[in-house]
Amino acid sequence: MYSGEVERDIFNIVTKMSGYSSDEEESEIPKTSSVYLGYVDVDFESAEEEPTIEDSFIGGQPVWLHPESKPAADLITCKNCNKPLALVLQAFSPLDGTSYDRVIYVFSCKDDLCKRKPGSVRVIRGVSKDPKRIEEAEQQQQAELKDQLDAKLKLDNARDFLFDNNKQESNPFGASSDSNPFGGASDSNPFGSNSSGFNSLSDNPFGKKPEEPKKENFSSFASVAAKAAPPKVTPKKSTFKELPEYPGYFLYVDQEKFHKKPVVKDIKVDDSVLDFEAETSPSGGSNLSPESQAISNSLQDSVFQHFSEIVSYNPLQVLRYDLGGIPLLFSSSDEVAKKISKDLIPKPGYNLSSSRKFELQIMPKIIMDFEQDVSITSGIDWATIIVYTDVEDYIPELDENHVGYVEEWVGVQWEESLKRK
């Protein structure tokens, strides 16, 4: 059994931990949270288009904010072996109220000797403040606003026409517009454009899913992703590979939903999962393999129990995005958990007057997608990768193409952190 199977076994346990109440109606409106979840969609080989800046995806080659503006080489190399890193995640994540491009890149070293070592997983935040693209984005926002106002005006005119042509002396609501229970004021219009719960696919905070049907919009962050993004431009395909690769997949994003209330059951893990060994130690206890011990210890951790319960609602998630929220910790016993729980996340070195806040994290299911790569011979050791970014979204310097990159804080909870001494 290689190390990556620990996460796979834990993933299987997570999906079996919770049952569902059979007396709940299927049509019940699901509860939601402020978190956006990323799910694997089509793989790059099957897709008709190359990924662009406005897409979010895992694996493959990064798409830089400008073809001639790439981050410095020392930002995308492993701090242990000095080899180039492989892209784990690229997330298109413009901020609410801004009109510039913003991308989060997560990288990892594929060298087996670098596993569990600091500097083998790194995160870069990239920003592009090209005046032309910002102007295009603002014009697009204005055009969308005008379309909304025009649609609302047409609706108001149609409503006024309807009531004016149906006025009669016997009208129980009276002839005066003031007595109209539906009113002419735009604020009272229950069907006004501002009350619409539907938006286009470009409302997806990480880029659109190819040919995905329209989805409900639940957050201003989701809508600003489209409004802050300039028209989509497909970059030229490289004729060579610059970085090692994991298998590439587009992501689609939806708000976290809790469709049914889980009924937590007693966890019973059979020998096929925990791989108990028959031998008995001199002290009378059972000997477990290291992998089994890691799982056994994790099941006694209340933080992991909470992780399992939340993930069990949406077990296929590979990404959680909740800017300014709280990360979902995998374990309570490692240094990452201590830094987060005690608010010890380091300030950005390039902006010491600022601080960092949680933005996103990568979830264990991504391992199952990446392990299709035959070059991965000894498994992947992440449990979750947690990213914190500068509160002020500051970039010290932009190049001639108005692009800048900085390294952000990343906390990796490894499978080894589950083993208690």
From TrEMBL:
PANTHER family reported for this sequence: 20S RRNA ACCUMULATION PROTEIN 4
Q: Where is the composition biased (Low complexity)?
A: 186-204
Q: Which GO terms describe its cellular component?
A: cytoplasm
An example Pfam family from this entry, by short name, is PDCD2_C
Q: Which residues form the Programmed cell death protein 2 C-terminal domain?
A: 301-414
Q: Which domain of life is it from?
A: Eukaryota
Q: Where is the composition biased (Polar residues)?
A: 168-180
Q: Biological process GO terms, please?
A: maturation of SSU-rRNA
Protein name per Swiss-Prot or TrEMBL: Programmed cell death protein 2 C-terminal domain-containing protein
Residues covered by region (Disordered)? 164-218
Q: Show the ranges annotated as biased composition (Basic and acidic residues).
A: 206-217
